[in-house]
Amino acid sequence: MPLTFQGRPLAGLTTCVLALLPVTTPAAENPTLASAPALSRPSSPERSPSADGFLQRWLVLEPIRSNSRLTDHAVQEAVKKDYFPNQSSVVPRDGDTVTVAGEALTWHALDTLAYNVNLYHFARARGKPTSFVLFWAVTVVDCPEEVRDARLAIGSNAASVWWVNGQEVVGIYGDRQTVIDDGVSQRLTLRKGPNVVRCAVVNGGGATDFCARFLDASDRPLKGFTIVLPPKSP
User: What is the pLDDT of residues 83-129, one digit of tens each?
Assistant: First the structure.
């Protein structure tokens, strides 16, 4: 089934934006986000990547409990397990919920002030577990023109697997710290219009976070695009 965005095939959209419906509640007025100082609700309809190309707006699902080891095989098995419907293709909305093992989990739209998304702070602020868990995150990179020979460059604590437009492109494994550009995909083409970036991060214990950016054909940070996320669920 082809990936769609707001009812249209992804390849058919032609605008370029990182976005959500504006939300004006600052973290300082929101007790949930106050304990995650680098994370906030999006307050603008669109966002560009950082000066160094990092993607700083994501939809993140509350953590799924997982006792997976961090080896290549175990992580691949954990991320390929079916937890909720359409997990490999859905572009969720802020506030959407899924049920995993009888527990309702919510998707949250987040901006990060840093180059990385601090999943430990995200989970702890919501009273969710931070150890022996799996996080799903999704964003949509909307490009004004086709970009050939790009590469997705990522880092994570701990293991992670990444997809672009439904194709698995890179994974890193083991109990590791987040290092910028720790894993880099093969050359790929970003379509004109929206491109879905999806990741699954598996954490054993302690701190957990991730970072991601695209590199151009000369391995420089790719910019000149924005990110478009669906409107918040009614």
Answer: 999 999 999 999 999 999 999 999 999 999 999 999 999 999 999 99
List Cβ neighbours of 182 (8 Å cut-off, separation of 6 or more): 154, 155, 156, 172, 176
Residue type, 38: A
Assigned token pair, 32: 């949930």
Per-residue pLDDT at 29 exceeds 90: no
Would you call 182 exposed, middle or buried from its count of C-beta atoms within 10 A (0-12, 13-18, 19+)? middle
Phi, psi of 149 (to 5 degrees): 60, 30
SS3 80: helix
Distance between CA 196 and CA 140 in Å, rounded? 5
**Alpha-carbon separation of residue 32 from 18, 59, 72 (angstroms):** 23, 16, 34
- Nearest 5°: CA angle at 85, between 198 and 88? 25
| CA distances, 44 to each of 21, 167, 197, 216 (Å) | 7, 30, 20, 27
9 secondary structure, DSSP code: E
Strands (E), 83-187: 97-100, 103-112, 117-118, 133-143, 147-157, 159-164, 167-172, 183-184
How many whole angstroms separate alpha carbon 215 and alpha carbon 234? 36
**Burial of 24 by CB count in 10 Å (0-12 exposed, 13-18 middle, 19+ buried)?**
exposed
